[in-house]
Amino acid sequence: MRPLGRRLGLTIPVFLFFAAFSLAPHLAHADIDAMTADDVCAPTEDPCEITEVVKVPSIPAELDFGTRTVNVTGNGQLDFGSSRGRVLAGNININPSPGKTGVKVRKGSGGQFVGGDATIVARRSCSLDVSQPCVIDLDCAQLRLGTCDAGPAGTLWLNGKATANGDEFPGSIELRAAGEITIDKNVRANATRPDADSGAITISSLQASVTINDVVEAKGGGASTGGDIDVESDLDITLNAPINASSTAGEDAEGGTVVLFAGRDIFVNDDIDADGGSCAGGTICIDGARDVIVNGVAGDRTAILANGGTFIDEFNDGAGGDGGDIELLAGDRLVVGEFTKLQSDGGMPDGDGAFILTLSSTDGSVECGGQVFARASGNQGTGGAIGLDSLGSLTVLPTAIIDVSAGNGGGGDIEFLAGGDLDIQSGSLTDAGAGNQGSGGSVSASGQNVFINSRIKASGEPAGSSNGDIDISGCEVFIQSEADLVNDGGEGLTVLVGRDVLPATSITIDSGASIDTSGANGINEFFYADAAKPPVIDPGATIDPAQILTVNLGLTKCAGCGNGQDDLGETCDDGNLINGDGCSADCQLESCIGQSIDYPAQPLCNDGNGCTVDTCNIFTGNCEHVQDCSDQVGCTDDVCINQECVNTPNDANCDDSEFCTDEFCDSVRGCVRINLVLDCDDGLFCNGADTCSGGECQEHAGSPCADMSECGAGFCNEQGETCDFFPFGTPCSDDGDICTDDVCDGAGNCAHNPNTAPCDDGFNCTEGDVCGGGVCAGTPNAGLCNDGNLCTDDSCQIGVGCVAVNNTDPCDDGQACTIDDTCTGGMCVGDPQNCGGVCGDGSINDDEECDNGASNGLVGNACDAECNFNLCGQPTGGPTPVATDALFVIQAGVGSQVCDLCICDVTGNSEINASDGLGVLRRSVGLPIPFSCLPCL
Q1: How far apart are CA 856 and CA 865, in angstroms?
Q2: Which letter, b or e, does each residue of 460-477 get, where b requires 16 or more Cβ atoms within 10 Å of its Cβ?
Q3: Which listed residue, of 9, 607, 663, 719, carries a Cα 20 to 30 Å from 744's Cα?
C-alpha cells in the first residue's frame, strides 16, 4: 500500500491538520464582543447575518448598520448586557431558532440600580440622499434632504423572545421602526423578586402600523409596582395577544401603566392587565385618532383591567387598593363590543372604584355592548366614576352592564353624554346603587334625542339618609316601555328635562315604563320649555311618587327653525314655518332672499363674485358684499383674479433671516419653521467652529487653540483671531533624554536642545560618561569586561559595551576520554578517544553523536538506537519525513506527545505547534519546505 500522504495527494494537509486538532479539547464558538457594526459583519455585507451571540456595546458606542438589513437567525442573539446600548439598521428580522432568545437585556445588580436598556431601530432613507438613514420626515427636513420615504421599508420583525427580566433591577426594551412592527414572540421586562419593580417596554412605528401577536409584559414582583408599556403607531395598532403591567400581591404593589396611541385605528382583541397586587390599580390609556374597536369572542371575553389589589395585614386590618384609571379615546368611532370587560374595581377590603372614560370626538360615535365596572369592595368602599361620552351618537347595547355600585361607602357616578342621539337599549343595566345603608350614586344621561329602554338604578338602602340622583336631559326624551328607573329608598331625586319646543311634546313616557323614587321624600320632577306642550305620559306607565311638572322658559332650547330663537345659520326665526311674513319657512330674511342669485340652490346673498364675503344684515334686511380673499393663512399672497380668489404660498413671507432655520409657506399651516443642522459662524474666533442647534448658531467646538502644543495652548487672541505662543526658554515636556534641555522655541514648538551634562551611558565598561550632541558616551576600559571564559577575548566598544570574541587557544575540557583540547565556538572541545563503554550507557563514547541512555531510539527522542542524532522533522526515524512524522509533531504541539525541539521544532522558534506539523506534512508529500531546527546538544 502506498503511503497515506501519496494516496490523498495535495488535499491531505488541510484534512490531517484539522483531524489532528480534533485530538485537542473542543473549543466552543466565542461570543462576538462588538464595538462597531464592522465587528459583526463586513461593511459590504447586506444582509448582515447574525448567527452567534453579539454583545452590544454601551452608548456612546453603538452598532450602526446604516440601512442594511440585519437578520438574527440560528443561535444569534443581541445581548445588551446591563448597560445602555443601541442597534441601528434598515429592515431588522429577529428570527432565531425555536426556543432561543433573540434580544437579551441583563438585570442590574451589585449597586447598579437599573438594568440594561436596549434600543433597536429599523430605518428608511431620505428621498434626496439614500445614504442618510431616517425614521421620520423631520430627520430629513432638518438636513434639507427631502422626506423619509426611500430605501428599505424600515420594518422590524420580532420572532424570537426579547427579555429584560430581573430579580433585582429589570431592564428596558425599546423597539422602534420607520415601517411596520410585528411582534410574533413575547417581550418581557418582569421583576422576578418580590420587592423589585418591573422594567419598561416601548414599541413604536413612526410611519406605519404595529401588530402584536404574542405576550408583552412588564409585571412587578410582590410588594412592588408594575412596569410601563407604551405602544405607539403612526397608523394602526392591532393587539392579538395580552399586554400585562400588573403587580402581584404584596405591600406597596401597584399596577403599572399601559398606553396605546395610534394615528389611525386601534383594534384590541386580547387582554390588557394593570391590576394592583395590594395597592391601587395602574393606568390604561387607549387613544386612536380615528377608530378604537375593543372586542372578544363568545367564551373568551377581552378584559381591560386596572383593579385595586387586596390588602389585609397581620391584624386583619388595612384597606384594599383603589381601582386605577382606564381611558378609551377615539377621534371617530369607539366600539366596546359584547364580549368585552372594562374593570377598575376597588380591592378588598374597602377599596374604591376608579375612573373609566370612553370618549369619541369630532363627529364620532360610541357603541358599548360590554361590561364596564368601577365598583367598590367591602362595606366602606365608594363606587367609582364611569363616563361614556360622544360628540356624535351614543348607543348602549342590550348586552351592556355599567356598574359603579358599592356598600355603605356610597354608589359612584355614571354619565352618558352625547352630542347626537343617546340610545340606552332594552336589556342593558346601569347600576350606581349602594347597599348596607349606603347612599345611592348618580346617573346622568343627555343628548339630542334620548331613548331610555333599560334598567337604571341609583338606589341606596331604604334606611339610608340620602339616596341617588337620576337626571335625563335632551331635546326630546323618550322613556320607553321597558324602562325601569329605580331610585327608591328615601331622599331620591329623578329629573327629566325636555328642551325642544318644536314637536308636540319634548317628554314621552310609554306604557310599561316605570319610574320608582318611592322612598321617603323622593321626588320625580319633569321640566319642559313650552307650557303648551307638556309631557305625554301613557296611563300604562308607573310613576311613584306622582310627577311634578315644571315649565322652565329659561331652558336652552334645541336648535331648529321655528323655535323662536336665531340659531346658527338662521337670519331670522319668528316661531313659525310660514313663507310671506318676512321670515321664510327656512328662517331666512325674505328681503335678503330677493337680493340673492338662485337661492336656495346658491347661498343666501350670493352675488356670483368669488372674491366677496356675502352676508345678510339682519338689522337692515339687505345683503352686504365685502371683498375679502384672505384665507386666514398669513404667508399666502391673496389676490382676486376674474372674480376668483387666488391664494399663493410665498416662502419669502416666512423668512426670519435666521441662517439656522429654513422657512416655507404651507397653504394650510402657514409658516413652517425647520431647525437646520449646518455649519454657521457666530462671529467669534475663540469659541471655535460653530454649528446650528435649536434654530440658532449656539453649538461651539471650543477654543481653536486648545489642541495646540503646550507652548501655545490657552493663548487665544480674539482681536487678532490668532493663537499666541509661549516665549523662548519656557520649560516644556521632558522628552526623557538627560542630554537635552526641553524649552519652548518661541514659535509654539517644544524644542529639545543638546547639552553637555554628566550622564550614564548604561555600559559598565566605560568611564567619565558625558553628554555630547544629544548622546551620552564614556571612555572604554577593557579591563572591566573579563567574562572568565578562556575561550573568548574580551574588549569594550563605544556604544556597544563589553564584546567577547571566540578564540582558538589550547584548553582543557575536563573529559578523560578526549585529547588535543582546543577552544571552538567559545567552548573547550577535545577529540574523543576510546575509553571503553557502549551505546546506551548514557555517556558519549568514541564515535557516538549522542547517548541518552534508556531513552535512545524512543519516538520523539533526539538520539536514535545507534547513538546518532535523528534528523530535523523525522521524530519516528526513516530516510525522509512521512505523514506519521507530521501527525506526531502535531500531537506534540497540543501536548499529547513529548518530542525534542531539535527534531520537532522545524520552524526554529523554540516551541512546537501546529505550524511545525504542517511543515513536516508538506515535506512528506514532496514540497520543498525548509527546516530550521536548532542543533541537538
Answers
A1: 5
A2: bbeebebbbbbbbbbbbb
A3: 719
Question: Is-contact 258 274, C-beta < 8 A?
Answer: yes
Kindly give the interhelix angle for 883-893 and 914-924, rounded to the nearest 10 degrees. Answer: 180
- Locate the DSSP E strands across 825-880: 827-832
- CB-CB contact of 93 with 157 (8 Å): yes
End-to-end CA distance of the chain: give it in Å, rounded. 37
Other beta carbons within 10 angstroms of residue 133's beta carbon come to 25
CB 424 within 8 A of CB 474: no
Question: In this structure, which amino acid lies at residue 545?
Answer: P
Asked if 346 and 353 count as a contact pair (C-beta separation under 8 A), the reply is yes
- Cell numbers found for residue 379: 362595606
pLDDT in tens, 818-836: 788 899 988 898 887 756 6
Q: Tell me how far apart the alpha carbons of residues 394 and 402 are, in angstroms, rounded to a whole number.
A: 14
Across-strand partners of 355?
Answer: 385
Q: Which residues contact 380 (CB under 8 A, 6 or more apart)?
A: 319, 349, 350, 407, 408, 409
What is the residue whose three cell numbers read 443561535? 75
State how beta strands 292-294 and 266-268 pair: parallel
Determine the 3-state secondary structure of 9 from DSSP. Answer: helix
pTM to 2 decimals?
0.67
* Structural contact between residues 873 and 920, judged by C-beta atoms closer than 8 angstroms: yes
Residue entry with cell 352618558: 416
User: pLDDT at residue 699 above 60?
Assistant: yes
DSSP state of 39: G
Question: In whole angstroms, what is the distance from residue 310 CA to residue 378 CA?
Answer: 11
3-state secondary structure of 75: coil
Q: Are 356 and 326 in contact (CB under 8 A)?
A: yes
Among left, alpha and beta (phi > 0; psi -120 to 50; other), residue 919 is alpha
Look up residue 844 and give its three cell numbers: 558519549
Q: How many CB atoms lie within 10 A of CB 600?
A: 11
pLDDT, tens digit (0-9, with 9 covering 90-100), for 449-497 = 999 999 999 988 764 556 789 999 999 999 999 999 999 878 889 999 9
Task: Name the 3-class secondary structure at 8.
Answer: helix
Contact 147, 126 (CB under 8 A): yes
Residue with cell 480534533: 22
pLDDT digits (tens, 9 = 90+) for 423-444: 999 999 999 988 777 788 899 9
Q: How far apart are CA 887 and CA 209, in angstroms?
A: 62
Alpha-carbon distance of 17 to 921, in angstroms, equals 9
For 139, the enclosing helix (H) or strand (E) is helix 137-141
